[in-house]
Design brief:
With 263 residues, the chain is an alpha+beta fold. It has five helices and nine strands. It starts with 7 loop residues before the first helix and ends in a 5-residue tail after the last helix.
């Protein structure tokens, strides 16, 4: 089995961290970086309700299919369905996404917080679903600092992939639900990881990240996460891209149970 390990410089020339409002360009891989720009723009338009769901669906499908073709042109990323299933079952592939924490931090008792019914990525008004796992930290005074260590909690990439979108400009009072978020595309799995409610984002669109690499710091950003009734947590979602290029939420709970913990 081939598990890709291409360095970020080979992909995007090592971009500097940028905000979600300003995207730097790079001519080393213009075609690949264009998909990051397109994804960033599309997701922002969906959140701000400046695009109709049907149009958003078509554009999303085109971006995901384009990314898949782009990576499949690299021999290291030609992963078939059997290899992909094997990777998802492997405890060696995933890193637990919070430094210093393990499975006992996952909300609920058996990952029952995952509810995908009613999920619609393309309609920002769609509510009621929770196609994700929330991972809670020890932060009784809700300052975003780990009560045990007195330090911020690092958010780690669960698998290696390409950062395709970020948000860094969330402010208290905003009704945007995800706060400061990060989207990472995993070409081996052909899926998207979404990390939400961050206080700090340490990556930029177009940047390649390795499994277990720090991508941000824990926060309480987002309309609901900012409220005092909400314990400090990471909102982790994974969307498996289907043959038609559209997303289907998958429960990451089994992956989290076998993921490598990072101290």
């Amino acid at each position: 089995m081939r598990i890709a390990g291409i360095a970020g410089a080979l992909l995007m020339g090592g971009l500097n961290v940028a905000s979600s409002q300003v995207l730097t360009s790079n001519l080393d891989q213009p075609a690949l970086y264009t998909y990051c720009q397109q994804f960033q723009t599309l997701y922002t338009q969906i959140r701000e309700q400046r695009i109709q769901p049907d149009s958003a669906r078509m554009r999303f499908s085109a971006i995901m299919r384009g990314l898949q073709v782009r990576f499949q042109s690299m021999e290291s990323y030609r992963v078939d369905s059997l290899q992909r299933d094997s990777l998802r079952r492997s405890g060696r592939y995933f890193a637990f996404p919070l430094r210093g924490y393990s499975t006992n931090a996952i909300g609920g008792t058996h990952g029952e917080g995952f509810r995908s019914k009613g999920f619609n990525l393309f309609d920002y008004n769609a509510k009621g679903s929770h196609p994700a796992q929330d991972i809670f930290v020890v932060d009784r005074n809700q300052d975003g600092i780990d009560d045990r260590t007195g330090q911020p909690i690092d958010i780690l990439a669960m698998s290696s992939g390409l950062v395709v979108g970020i948000e860094t400009g969330w402010k208290p009072g905003s009704d945007y639900r995800g706060g400061n978020w990060i989207w990472v595309y995993d070409p081996n799995l052909h899926g998207l990881f979404y990390y939400a409610h961050n206080n700090q984002v340490d990556v930029a669109p177009g940047q390649w990240v390795q499994s277990g690499q720090k991508i941000g710091e824990m926060g309480r950003t987002g309309f609901n996460a900012y409220k005092t009734r909400s314990p400090t947590h990471l909102h982790l979602m994974y969307l498996q891209i289907q043959p038609d290029g559209l997303p289907q939420p998958l429960n990451t709970y089994p992956w989290l149970l076998t993921a490598k913990t990072v101290k």
